What does this fold into?
Amino acid sequence: MILDIYKDSLEYSAKDWKTLVKLGVICLFSFLLLPAFLITGYNYRVINNAVHGVINGRDPLPGFDDLVSMFVDGIKFVVVQIAYLLVPVIIFAVFSLIALQTTGVAASAIMIIGCILTFVAFIVCELMINMGLCHMAYNDGAFSKAFAITEIKEVIDEIGWFECIATFIGLVIITCVISFVVSAIIGIIFSAFGFSGAMLGIDPTGIFLLGAIINSAITLFIVGPYLSIFNSRSIGLLYTMQI
Amino acid sequence: MASITDCVVEGLKYPFNDIKKLLGLGVLFAIINLLSMFFAMNTFDMYRVVIHVLENTTVPLSSLNMSIIPSANIYTAVGITIVGLIVGLFILGYQYNILSFSIDRKDDLPGFGDVVDIFVKGIKYFIVSVAYNLPAMIVMAAAMMFLDNLTVMSVLMVVSFVLLVIGYFLLVMALNNMVAHDSVGKAFDFREIIDNISNLGWGKYIGTILFTVIVFMIINVAVGLVLSLLAVAFAAVIINQAFAVSIFIGVIEALFVSSYCAVFFNRVCGSIYRESIK
It folds into this structure.
């Protein structure tokens, strides 16, 4: 089941390289803050397509029409994430405040417990965020559904907690591996060029610089958008796995 | 019933229906910005005078009289305030019209034809806004009396803040109610206001306003970031003209951003009322 999700998402994200480049251009301008929300809005659209679609179906990639509603969707996406992430932050703040009041071994013990609790809360919150976003998309973008914790818990129960967490860990691993392998390959190619150039007595600085630029450009325009679509699609498909 | 997102998306698209009128409102905002800059310049002059006096005498600051400030400056300051207030009332009156267009589901922007009418509506809008913020202001003033007693002051500050928030949430519906019935009395008809809000659902009502405020702030922060980058770039290129650059940036912001945000916000508020009376 999990492998099917990955296979479908990997194929889905590779459907149209133009979309990837467009996303990359938006990402390039996201230091202006408004385009950053367009990217999250696009991810929300991908989730929306996945939640209402079928695995291994012929869902098209969402388009870039109606930027305003994409922008608003992106803000919703971010608001939901921030609201959930407040929980671990508050837990951490409370424990560190208590630890500041005490001294010696007690302080470190409280701090360690606090860190563990924060970590657990963070993992659970990440799970709830992703499933909450899917649940929101499934219910036509109703905000309250993103925070309907009991409903989301039922959804996760039906999918199975183990499957969910395994899928997420898999996503993290795949993301890391793909980005590492791509940049490593480009790096190896250009260092081979550079070193062979150096052996022939040419200054290799330009070649290394070119390699670094091409590396970051490919990461920005191809690999980054690809991975973000891949992640959103996988999470959306995971939501449809409930029985 | 349209969802929160639909209201906000509709509100964001609405100002583009008539760019000329949007720019007309922008000119008003630009006047206010220019006035406040001029005011700030004059205030700097006054500070300069006060500091000059303090350097030449040994008396403490609190014993100085208002009379040492040059009277010409005072007159300018008062004049600027009055002109600014009039322009501000005009803007509020225009916002009143936007609310009423939104409640009537009209897709074009209101015009500037009837100046007196807009002005009168602005006064109504202003009075209602002040009235709803009055409790918070009174408590805040009371807090200022206890400057030496920190506990009392902080408690009063918190109370004032809570009152401010409650007042703001009621104010949105009160303004809508006033505009819909075109009478100031309806703005204080608490039973109807509360009924309207419960009709929509408190969660949805507060959620919509909070979400709109978040969108509003994001737009403002993003544009502010871009404009400040521009300002820094200009100021670096054009030396010794920082004031001219800041006037330029201020006018740009007023023309396009403040007007857009004001129209957007009032449009969404109007559609909240439209949803609530269904």
In short: Chain A has a mean pLDDT of 88. DSSP finds nine helices and no strands in chain A. The first helix of chain A runs from residue 2 to 13.
